[in-house]
Amino acid sequence: MRAGADAFLCGIISAILLRMSVNKAILVGRLGRDPETRYTSGGQAVANFTLATDETYKDRSGERQKRTEWHRVVLWGKLAEIAQQYLKKGMLVYVEGRIQTRQWEDKRDGQKRQTTEIVGTTMRMLTSRGEGAGIGPGAGRSGDADTEAMLPSEEPSAGPEISDEDIPF
Q1: Could you give the domains of the chain?
Q2: For residues 47 and 79, what is the distance between their CA atoms, to the nearest angstrom?
């Protein structure tokens, strides 16, 4: 009887795993600009910034090449307020979240627009505010900001209920 129950349980677990999907992004990079924070009509903070990640590789001729990928990052709630207060262009940050694509119609020309962004749920500063762009002694080392706790965002995992009028950009 036990073998039959185990097989049944394995079948259920397999069915669950086959339907499971994961949407998770983990980035470590430098801010391309200071965060821009706005507030929804409901008073919730929304911070936006760009994050650059670099990849180094050798091309066919053996030369080292560097490729930079730019990511749009959105933080909500308390995490957005912390980003506005502490993050500056050039700082090294860890961001964890999900990939989200939004579509809207541009009010100026009526064109449909689309953007893909990382909706951050965790952010950790890896350089102190004084290090900024990472120039000078101690650049790239963790400072006091490294001791900041990773804060989960206050939004539910499915995201806040917002309408087009709530999007401040």
Answers
A1: 23-166 (2.40.50.140)
A2: 8
